[in-house]
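Pipeline run #58 for the internal structure catalog. This entry was flagged by the ingest filter as a single-chain record with no existing model, so it goes straight to prediction. Upstream metadata was stripped on purpose; only the residue string is passed forward. Reviewer on rotation: M.T. Logging verbosity set to normal.
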Amino acid sequence: MRIAEISSSARYMPEESIMSRPIAGEVVLLNLQSGVYYSLNGAGALIWTHIERGEPVDETVRALLDEYDVAPDVAARDVETFVQTLVEKGLLRAR
C-alpha cells in the first residue's frame, strides 16, 4: 500500500506480534517474532498511541494539530508517511 492509498478514514492496528508500552514519555515497541525493538518519542509516540486506540487517520491528524504548531497539510502528510513506514516494517496493518 502506498501513501496515496491511505484514506483519512482508514484505521490501523498493531500486528499481532507487536507489543507496545509507554515508558517515560516514549512508546517502546517490541516485535516478538524478530526481537527487534523500536522507541518512538514526540510525534511518533502520539501517532502510535492514537492509531493503537483504533482512531482513524484523520482523528490522529487532528491530535497532532492540537499538540504541535504545524500546518494541516504537513500534519496529514507526516501521519500518512509515518503510518506507511510502520506498515512497511510490519508493525501495523489495516483494520
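catalog note: Residues 72-88 form the longest helix (17 residues).
catalog note: The CA atoms of residues 47 and 69 lie 15 Å apart.
status: ready for reviewer M.T.
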